[in-house]
Amino acid sequence: MTHLTTEETGPYFGEFGGRFIPEALVPALDEIDETWRKSLVDEEFARELSGLQADYINRPSLLTEATRFAQHCGGARVFLKREDLNHTGSHKVNNAIGQALLARRMGKTRLIAETGAGQHGVATATAAALFGFECTVYMGAEDTQRQALNVARMRLLGATVVPVTTGTRTLKDAMNEAMRDWVARVDDTHYVIGTVAGPHPFPAMVRSFQRVIGDEAREQVLARTGRLPDAVCACVGGGSNAMGIFAAFLGDESVSLRGFEAGGEGVESGRHAARFSGGRPGVLHGSATYILQDEDGQTRPSHSISAGLDYPSVGPEHSHLHDTRRAVYEPVGDAEAMEAMRLLSRTEGIIPAIESSHALAGAMRVGQELGEDGIVLVNLSGRGDKDMTTAAKWFDYIDEGATQE
Amino acid sequence: MTASTAAALDAAAAAGRSAALIGYLPVGFPDVPGSLAAMEAMVAAGCDIVEVGLPYSDPGMDGPVIQRAVETALDGGVRTRDALRAVEAVAAAGGTPVIMSYWNLVLQYGVDDFARDLAAAGGAGIITPDLIPDEAAHWLAASDEHGLDRIFLAAPSSTPERLDRIASASRGFVYAASTMGVTGARASVDDHARELVDRVRGAGAERVCVGLGVSNGAQAAQVAQFADGVIVGSALVRALSADGVDGVAALTADLAAGVGA
Hints:
The structure holds two protein chains of two kinds.
Chain A: H1 6-9, E1 12-13, E2 16-17, H2 26-40, H3 43-57, E3 63-65, H4 67-70, E4 77-82, H5 92-105, E5 110-115, H6 119-131, E6 134-140, H7 141-146, H8 148-156, E7 160-164, H9 171-184, E8 189-191, H10 202-225, E9 231-235, H11 240-246, E10 256-264, H12 275-278, E11 280-284, E12 287-291, H13 316-323, E13 327-333, H14 334-348, H15 354-370, E14 375-380, H16 388-395
Parallel strand pairs in A: 4-14, 5-6, 5-8, 6-7, 9-10, 9-14, 10-13
Antiparallel strand pairs in A: 1-2, 3-4, 11-12
Helix pairs in contact in A: 3-5, 5-6, 5-10, 6-8, 10-11, 14-15
Chain B: H1 5-14, E1 20-26, H2 32-44, E2 49-53, H3 64-75, H4 80-92, E3 96-100, H5 103-109, H6 111-120, E4 125-127, H7 137-146, E5 149-151, E6 153-154, H8 160-169, E7 174-177, H9 192-202, E8 208-211, H10 217-224, E9 229-232, H11 234-258
């Protein structure tokens, strides 16, 4: 069965991670940790999870070579890991289904979640419907506006969606509100954190549920090309799709790991979510990690055209990979990401999520570095259907006076 | 002389009162001078220990009343150093000041620097709602060096092993967060409060104070029967926002009567 190193199970990743949370939550976190660790060596759990992955999520996800897109990437071969083809449209479902299985083992009857773009909220609402759990999703009021379709999806799935009107009214405030709910109802409720952030064991546990992306992709690239890729590209908000695909390549020294954060309107503008370019270590949402903050340590508002990357903190393992230089993180601005979104749509007939478009823009840079002999693996973490309102506005695709009833 | 919460709690007991009164207000609400005036008024009306709250952008343990107040304070530009001014003001008024802060603010000031400046300002210690003893090595050392109280929280969900750890790591008192949930006034104080206090004492804590949910003199009197101190936050913040400094003074007097002042 699976054997994990200490580095893989937490609570610390170098100087990062840990548990900076109210005492009241410690027993719940201990219970999750114990249930998760038991599940790792439990064949019945492995069977349940892999059954749902195959018959419900649609795994393994495809690996698609993007030959026309690759012409814009210095001629390197580009492979897309198609998490956009998962049920619910993104990688988030890998984690939501895994945690729902754990919640059932712990005897919980209610799931709560925070969500930014709504993808994790939809994935959690989906898992709740499948398992017969009650479900409440906290979403920043600004995000419920710009991702209105996902709000409708969650409600159709039977979830209660609570718009959060405190603070910056985005993902970080949704997470605060979910924490407040959890501490009051921890007896019957499991908090499905959607990314590799939060207190231990969430960063390590969520990574373990997302690692399937990297394990599949590593085999698929080997089978297709006979060798490992030179670089693996992923967008990094909280960082779960990136950690999921990086995890399988951490031991492969020849593989360059490249994370792309939201550069927003430019790091110098102050309107971005580039924690590694514009932040410094601190503590937020339960773990020690890089954070966007002012001199006193107050969290600074982040900005990105992509709601899913619009988060002032980042998973602690990414901070460790950054400081040890095992992975390299760079910002990609709104405009560059949107251009990559349009380019993939027109060269491959695949409309990516704006989040994933940051990774595609990064792959275009990395491909130029590598040239024709290079192989680049990109995690296409989600599909772009949810982003049509934003894209239509950005590219001016809606005819004047047009309405949709 | 260094300020000490244990001394303040013991003095209340020696004076024949059933418990000490501990009142929370965030610095900078409604503005910095207004918050200092309200804290001084609390001391004058019988509050023994003042919890000087450091407003934080992400107050995960706080309910709506305190959230709104700290948002106002942050919008007004309050800084960490303003809390040290508040500590000086409370000490000068004859109260015992402690800081209540989410950990990142102390971390960014510098744990050693904050401990030094807090002690110099006359502060007794820090209440740390999101720092558990497991993560507190640096703070344990800094608080030892500067003779500061470190007040960790205990919860109804805490296991006996955790209560042992909390009791032995704490100095001054243990903050028994009596209900599972965020800050905010409640119609009745949870029955679990007494049980939690007993369990914390059983784990070796000499002094235990109860917070979360107390909003009036009658509730304070009830809690004072079994706790060394009664902690009130949201109700005071609400009084300040509704009726200003006079409102804070009136509620403090009611609470102080409840604990037998």
